[in-house]
Amino acid sequence: MLRVEKLSIPGLPKLTFEVADGECLAVEGPSGTGKTRLLRAIADLDDVAGHVFLDGAERREMPAWQWRGLVRYAAAEPAWWTDRPREAFASDPQSMTRLVKHIADLGLPAAILDRPVAELSTGERQRLALVRALAGGPKVLLLDEPTGALDTQSAALAEELIRFQTLAGRIVLIVSHDPAQIARLADARLQLAPQAEAHIDHAPNAPHQDAPHQTGAPALPPAGENAPAKASLFSPSSTTAPLAKSAGPASVRRP
After folding, report:
1. Pick from 249, 147, 138: which is nearest to 190 by CA?
2. In 3-state terms, what secondary structure has residue 174?
3. Cα torsion for 21, 23, 26, 27, to the nearest 10°?
4. I need a labelling partner for 121 at 20 to 30 A (CA). Which of 19, 68, 149, 235 fits?
5. Cα-atom radius of gyration of the chain, to the nearest Å?
6. DSSP strand pairing (171-175 vs 140-144)
7. CA 58/CA 38 separation, integer angstroms
8. Which CATH number does 2-253 carry?
9. HSE-CB of 9 using CA atoms within 13 angstroms
10. Would you give the distance in Å from CA 130 to the centre of its chain?
11. Which tens digit of pLDDT belongs to each residue from 61-104?
12. Contact yes or no for 186/239 (Cβ under 8 A)
């Protein structure tokens, strides 16, 4: 479980909310309200006041490299610090097998790993950034407009890969300006607005909870040694409901 507690993002009240394993939370709000800053703060890329916990462990109790291995951020405009994509990934056989599978899932050839980054299109770099975020099997994915530069077909492949990550038990937070994409992917929505109380709306029927198994489906390395089953938003064990009783400015509202 991911828990954000009294996190201070400029222009917003202090945020407190939880996301259970296997859930996708869409972060919504007008441009400039702090959606990207929230993702970066959770990823420990920006220093802000407040607390972020993953399975009970506090962000500040871990070395930065360890936290960022568990909580991976994919920027809307991803940067690359290597000349060729392959240099950004682990080279052991298991990691390479998973890497090539993810690349194929996104409609890219394996040979793209050896092409100069400078020659890649914006869409190719964005898809590879999603693959990079998945490298190492993180527990949490923070995705900022992950399909913003993609055509319809490529975006559909990316959504499929994202959907299967939640089915594997991973936590996903996504920022997207595409309402239809949010409807397809999100279990819940965190609404942000300047100087207004944030709240979470739960989708009554998340479309991917009953997604059938497909032959050739994206690779699903476990999120940890034992991937938990996909959590039900309305199960008695749901960890979101107690927040409605908390005194934090972020509240939970069920439709």
Report:
1. 249
2. strand
3. -20
4. 68
5. 18
6. parallel
7. 16
8. 3.40.50.300
9. 28
10. 10
11. 999 999 999 999 999 999 999 999 999 999 999 999 999 999 99
12. no
